[in-house]
Amino acid sequence: MAQCLSFLLILIFFSTHIHACSQTERTSLLAFALTLSSPSLNWTSSNCCHWEGITCNQDDSVTQLSLPSKGLRHNESISPLSSLENLTHLTYLNLSRNSLYGSSGQTRLFLSLNHLEILDLSYNFLSGELPIFPLSGSIRMLDLSSNSFNGEVPSSFFQRAWNLTSFNISNNTFKGSIPSSLCFTSSSLIRVLDFSFNKFNGSISPGLGDCSKLKVFRAGNNNLSGILPEDMYNVTTLEQISLPLNSLYGVLSGRILNLTNLAILDLQFNQFSGVLPLHFGKLSKLKLLLLQINNLRGSLPPSLMNCTSLIELNLGTNHFEGDLSMYNFSKLSRLRKLDLLKNQFTGTFPTSLYSCKFLKAIRLSANDIVGQIQPEILSLKSLSFLSLALNRLTNITGAIKILMHCKSLRFLSLASSFEEEEVPADFGMADFDGFQNLVFLDLSHNEVTGQIPIWLFKLKKLEVLNLNSNKFTGPIPSLLWTLPRLFFVNLGFNLISGEFPKELCSLPMLVSQNNNLSTDDLELPIYSTKDGGKTGVQYNSNLLYYPRTIDLASNSLTGNIPIEIGQLQLLRELFLENNFFTGKIPNQISNLKQLAYLDLSMNHFSGNIPASLTSLNFLADFNVSFNNLEGQIPTGTQFQSFSASAFEGNPNLCGSPLPNKCQPPPIDGDDNNSRDVNSEHQVPWILVSAVPGFVVGFWAVCGSLIFIKTWRYAYFRFLDNAYDSLYVMIAVGIKRM
Ligand SMILES: *[C@@H]1O[C@H](CO)[C@@H](O)[C@H](O)[C@H]1NC(C)=O
Ligand SMILES: *[C@@H]1O[C@H](CO)[C@@H](O)[C@H](O)[C@H]1NC(C)=O
Ligand SMILES: *[C@@H]1O[C@H](CO)[C@@H](O)[C@H](O)[C@H]1NC(C)=O
Ligand SMILES: *[C@@H]1O[C@H](CO)[C@@H](O)[C@H](O)[C@H]1NC(C)=O
Ligand SMILES: *[C@@H]1O[C@H](CO)[C@@H](O)[C@H](O)[C@H]1NC(C)=O
Ligand SMILES: *[C@@H]1O[C@H](CO)[C@@H](O)[C@H](O)[C@H]1NC(C)=O
Ligand SMILES: *[C@@H]1O[C@H](CO)[C@@H](O)[C@H](O)[C@H]1NC(C)=O
Ligand SMILES: *[C@@H]1O[C@H](CO)[C@@H](O)[C@H](O)[C@H]1NC(C)=O
Ligand SMILES: *[C@@H]1O[C@H](CO)[C@@H](O)[C@H](O)[C@H]1NC(C)=O
Ligand SMILES: *[C@@H]1O[C@H](CO)[C@@H](O)[C@H](O)[C@H]1NC(C)=O
Ligand SMILES: *[C@@H]1O[C@H](CO)[C@@H](O)[C@H](O)[C@H]1NC(C)=O
Ligand SMILES: *[C@@H]1O[C@H](CO)[C@@H](O)[C@H](O)[C@H]1NC(C)=O
């Protein structure tokens, strides 16, 4: 009996020890696991404290559940989150980066888990609104970012959250105003607030002043307007203010200089105005100062050069002015990127910049810089990106002779950089070995004369070559086709003669898909116009999505287009207008399945428009006006959706969209019927031709942005919202970059 009893006791002892976690918790967890359709968790042993992802405390209560990036998916509409409601001792829950969705589960979770301190549900597909009931008082960190939560953020949600230090709801679709009274109604311990990538609107109301521990405040990519709240300047703990891509305005108050711990100030793409506060140098910890695309003006306060921690200084597209050479950049010894694009700076290239040894990118484009490039620029050993476009420099020959020795240089734009000075195309050098890493070269809109120089064909890494609008003469060198990575050639608006070289039709990058291209990001994103600026611009950090283009427009080229053109299967844009080409439009152009822009206007082409061209589904713009073409425009195709001006100036061409009807065929055709057929086809073809255009544009923007991770979404959203205004701005100011 006693033996039996002790056996029982042992059994009880063991069984309680084996079933260490409580039955309720075990049931809860199993219910959770059951709702998951994949993958199955190895939750079989009896003690759930030993299960994967579970941690218990000394009392064998489940306190942590951590299953991030496990590919968890759940079955239909039952949210797994609601089954966690009985894990009342849970303090840490991390289900980040899974595929949980639905809007029902999380409310119960917020309500029932009274000890929860850390909740990370980021990167799922959860939706719904935040409950108006207060969140657990013990919560310290809440990350709901990168989901599909929506609605307003109710202030009652935080009523009891006295210990909240970090709150991240970025990348959802929250609306209404930013809950800036957070620190007043709840925790004044908050250090991190991230509201970016939502649909918050209105102004940032006062309240942040109560967040006396706030370090990081991010609310970029919303629809915020108004001025910055005064009490924000009281939060001297702030290290980061990131509010890009909003419609905030007002003068940058001198009070911002109270925020001496600031390391990141990002106010790009807003409407801030006025001058920079005089004693800006007080912000001596500043690493990133990003103010591009605002309405700031005036000269830079000399004390800015006391911000010696600066790594990136971007003041592009404002109205700053002043003699650049008067600023002493030499104290900015950590500077890596300087972007002063499109301001009103004058003076010479600041020689003090030559002592910023770590500089990787300099863009002074679209200012009024004069003078010469000095050989000292070679002390910038890391210089990889240099754009001086749209200035009034002198001595392009000297500049080229110096810059070719910049070993790291990958991107060089000297478009329209120089005042009128005719220079020979070889820049006085028959032969040289420079620019060995150059990927992008833009010498357009200068006064370069003579034949396209041979040294260009030594630049084996060259991908983009723009010599547009110079005075190049002679034939197109057939050596061009030997450049293994070249995929963008613009020789338009020169005095080039001779024929279209057959060899050009074997340009490797245009003939077959290969992954030879450098995938490295440029140090700064570039603006570039598509199709000569007709439909838009791109803002890219990577050349991978630069359109594959041959532009030979407005030269003196003669002869036929070689049938070998059909080999350039990857070509996106072909501009041959305003030359003296003759013969027929080769059928083979219809092999260029990627072609989106084709301009053959103002030549002497004859014969019919090949019907096969109608198979070019991506064709968004097409122009054959002012040639000697004849016959009927191929019907029932996207050609009818182009305007008549694309066909005008060909007296013998007929049919829609031209007003002149074709001669009735010998057998009496029913004119009315055929027109009906055409107009029936017109509607779908407009759609078809518009949609690929859109798709193409979309990918051009989006695809390239994939490579600038932080900004991908930002710029995509920006282009989405304000494409037109950016375009107008670019078209006015930067069109030739
Ligand atoms: C979803 O749950 C039902 C029962 O509720 C089950 O029959 C079905 O197999 C589950 N689907 C998946 C994909 O697990
Ligand atoms: C499941 O976990 C147990 C221990 O808890 C382990 O012995 C077993 O190998 C695991 N099974 C799989 C398939 O991983
Ligand atoms: C959740 O897990 C992920 C992946 O391990 C980790 O990066 C993240 O920091 C965790 N979240 C919290 C709040 O600890
Ligand atoms: C949680 O506990 C309650 C009360 O014991 C019970 O009714 C409910 O089914 C439990 N929920 C889960 C998911 O186990
Ligand atoms: C807040 O944190 C303090 C210190 O960690 C703790 O003593 C207190 O219980 C917490 N408050 C709540 C409501 O959990
Ligand atoms: C908030 O979460 C997003 C991911 O969704 C992350 O990129 C961002 O860095 C987080 N914010 C802060 C301040 O940590
Ligand atoms: C936003 O969320 C989506 C979906 O989870 C994710 O793919 C994307 O990377 C997130 N964007 C940012 C900027 O965190
Ligand atoms: C914010 O957006 C809502 C619509 O979502 C609108 O009704 C409201 O007027 C906006 N508020 C402000 C201040 O613009
Ligand atoms: C900033 O702080 C000072 C002193 O702490 C206080 O007098 C002032 O009212 C605060 N300003 C705002 C706008 O809250
Ligand atoms: C903040 O700035 C104001 C005036 O700009 C000044 O009077 C005040 O002392 C500053 N406070 C701190 C903490 O620097
Ligand atoms: C820059 O800082 C130095 C030393 O802190 C100081 O003497 C100087 O006046 C400051 N210059 C400007 C222009 O503020
Ligand atoms: C042009 O620059 C080169 C290299 O710096 C220099 O040798 C030459 O003297 C300059 N020419 C003129 C006219 O200034």
UniProtKB/TrEMBL annotation:
Matching SMART domains: LRR_TYP
Residues in domain Leucine-rich repeat-containing N-terminal plant-type?
Answer: 23-57
Q: Which Gene3D superfamilies match?
A: Ribonuclease Inhibitor
Q: Give the family this protein belongs to, as stated in its UniProt record.
A: Belongs to the RLP family.
Organism the protein comes from: Rosa chinensis (China rose)
InterPro entries (alphabetical)? Leu-rich_rpt, Leu-rich_rpt_4, Leu-rich_rpt_typical-subtyp, LRR_dom_sf, LRR_N_plant-typ, RLP23-like
Membrane-protein topology? Single-pass type I membrane protein
Q: What is its main location?
A: membrane
Protein name per Swiss-Prot or TrEMBL: Putative non-specific serine/threonine protein kinase
Q: What cellular-component terms does GO give this entry?
A: plasma membrane
